[in-house]
Amino acid sequence: MTSVPGTQAVSRSLRVLRAVARHHKSGINLAKLTRETGLNKPTAHRLLMALMAEGMVEQDERSFHYFVGPECHMLGVIANERYGLGRAAADAVARLAQLCEDSAFWSIRSDAYAVCVLREDGDYPLKTHVLQPGVRHPLGVGAGSLAMLAALEDADVERHLATNARSLAKGYLRYSADMLRAEVRATRKRGYAVNQGLIVPGSWGLGAAVRASNGDVIGALSIAAVASRLRKNRQRELGPRLSEEARLLQKQVERMPVIRKN
Which structural domains are found in the chain, ordered by start? Predict the structure, then answer.
């Protein structure tokens, strides 16, 4: 992301809040938060106290773990009303989970990143847990994220690859700019993205992008399963169904106001 001079405290606060959100079920303690954010303990603790004072974060009295606070919920409700995506995306994710019996997701684009915001699990007992609501990856990392990257213009693809070069080199050793360029080409040719266990071995996924009414890539629907559940024949079965669900969601989105600009 592009940084704005003089906003370091805001950037760090959002880094802390996102780390807390990634652990929305179990919460996160201070030690783990400092590891994930790269901040020292005094700085992380100070920012947590500020976020707690604003209701954005709360701390469990018994475990001392931090969780997203009630103010986050209120902002989420307001955002959902503004964007109108919540129910439509939730319905699409639920249908996909029922169809594939594995896990289905809705992720949104946040500049050069993809953020998972919805997950629904199907009835198949063996699950992959690599993607949870709140998890962020650079565009191209993961099936839904790759679908978003491939749906962009070539110039935007190159811009985001440059933006994320350091993140890829540091945290995603199986990824590179050249590899992602090849994956973008394959995704465009195939019509949907495929992730063959590149984030976590054995966890495979399919993804299809969704656009807003002005053509902006705003998100992606995706499916994830253990590798044995997403071999070639099942990819060819589920890929077109996923793409069709993405098209149906896009038709709903196109009737809504434009919700983002590049």
Answer: 8-74 (1.10.10.10), 84-254 (3.30.450.40)
Question: Stretch 156-184: mean pLDDT, rounded?
Answer: 94
Yes or no: say if 123 and 104 are a contact pair by the CB < 8 Å rule.
Answer: no
Give the amino acid at 142. Answer: G
pLDDT tens sequence across 91-119: 999 999 999 999 999 999 988 999 898 89
- Which 8-state DSSP code applies to residue 194? E
Point out which residues pair with 58 in neighbouring strands. Answer: 67
For 200, the 3-state DSSP assignment is coil
* CA–CA dist 239, 94 (Å, integer): 16
The answer, yes or no, to whether residue 159 has pLDDT greater than 50, is yes
pLDDT in tens, 45-68: 999 999 999 989 999 888 999 998
Q: Tokens 């998972």 identify what position?
A: 116
Is residue 160 within 8 Å of residue 109, measured between CB atoms? Answer: no
d(CA 19, CA 21) in angstroms, rounded, equals 5
Q: How far apart are CA 192 and CA 81, in angstroms?
A: 29
55: left (phi over 0), alpha (psi -120 to 50) or beta: left
* CA angle in degrees (0–180, nearest 5) for 61-66-72: 115
Strands (E), 185-231: 193-196, 203-211, 217-226
Q: How far apart are CA 123 and CA 116, in angstroms?
A: 21
